[in-house]
Structure to design on (348 residues):
């Protein structure tokens, strides 16, 4: 296969590129290396994954370009069999500060990918987000437990499913722009313009993730712990997410690509599911166990549209993609900690 990975110098994108390169496929990476600018953060090694792929794999072609520019997209999409679209503005906070940029990257960028994919008959994997459900998630009844919150309604015992409502609620600009791309991908697939799947992702974590306070919380907590950085918890720390190790995510993407003739389209909530959940406080406990350290913590007010509980119902992905997570949080956090220890000079 020939696979195009947009945002391939990012965390998820670089793991997608590595997966197909290891398998012997031709991989094209498109990235503008603008993550630090989009997040308004000083990132010590914004080109780390770019250089890693360049130095590790001769079958990965690296192209500097921007998904907002159709000519850039069209050129690299030539003769590809699949496009894994990970390029995005990824932070809620950044979208509130600069909604126009967020829209152009996430909505216009996705539209350009779809138009190029149509020309090449390429399958598309779209990285969506649980933020498309917006503040509706906070309407689900929850209960406070020791160290965490949880859904109290029996109908949500497996988590949030793909038919959960998206309308009549606040989303934030980020949630809106990702939802726009999400719906466009669904429409192109439903009209048989392309084969495409939407993956509404929960918290993805793993090695080579340069987490910051605004995005990538599992990695950010690990970095803060190991590098003795102060940590701010917004809320009380009992908020819960299902977490998914990045290698498990990439396997789910590939399952759709391999099954495109059978499945053709789909929307999948994608995370660790009910068996792989963590509260912020529980993650700190795991990190203390793995490192012997606990960071200095300050507490602040809840942030806009922060969901107290979000857990993906992954039963549809398990059934249709014949997939399930393999790496549990203990193992995954251990892998992340080991990588940070080995690459302290590369992280923020």
């Amino acid at each position: 296969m020939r696979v195009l990975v947009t945002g391939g110098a990012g965390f998820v994108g670089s793991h997608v590129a590595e997966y197909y390169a290891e398998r012997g496929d031709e991989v094209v990476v498109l990235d503008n290396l603008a993550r630090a600018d989009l997040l308004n953060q000083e990132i010590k090694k914004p080109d780390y994954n770019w250089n890693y792929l360049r130095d590790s794999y001769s079958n990965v072609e690296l192209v500097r370009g921007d998904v907002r520019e159709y000519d850039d997209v069209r050129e690299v999409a030539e003769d590809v069999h699949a496009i894994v679209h990970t390029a995005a503005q990824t932070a809620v906070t950044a979208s509130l500060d600069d909604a126009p940029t967020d829209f152009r990257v996430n909505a216009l960028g996705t539209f350009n990918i779809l138009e190029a994919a149509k020309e090449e008959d390429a399958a598309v994997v779209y990285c969506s987000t649980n933020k498309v459900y917006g503040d509706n998630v906070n309407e689900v009844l929850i209960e406070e437990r020791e160290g965490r919150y949880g859904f109290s309604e029996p109908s949500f015992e497996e988590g949030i499913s793909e038919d959960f409502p998206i309308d009549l609620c606040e989303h934030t600009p980020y949630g809106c722009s990702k939802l726009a791309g999400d719906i466009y991908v669904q429409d192109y697939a439903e009209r048989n313009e392309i084969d495409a799947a939407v993956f509404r992702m929960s918290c993805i974590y793993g090695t080579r993730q340069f987490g910051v306070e605004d995005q990538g919380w599992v990695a950010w907590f690990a970095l803060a712990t190991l590098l003795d950085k102060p940590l701010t918890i917004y809320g009380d720390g009992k908020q819960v997410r299902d977490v998914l190790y990045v290698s498990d995510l990439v396997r789910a993407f590939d399952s759709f690509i391999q099954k495109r003739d059978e499945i053709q389209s789909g929307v999948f909530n994608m995370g660790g599911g009910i068996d792989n959940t963590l509260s912020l406080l529980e993650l700190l406990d795991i990190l203390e166990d793995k490192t012997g350290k606990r960071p200095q913590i300050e507490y602040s007010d809840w942030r806009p549209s922060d969901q107290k509980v979000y857990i993906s119902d992954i039963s549809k992905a398990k059934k249709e993609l014949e997939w399930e997570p393999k790496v549990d949080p203990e193992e995954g956090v251990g892998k992340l900690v080991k990588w940070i220890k080995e690459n302290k000079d590369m992280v923020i």
About this structure: The mean pLDDT is 94. Residues 2-346 form a domain with the Rossmann fold fold (CATH 3.40.50.720).
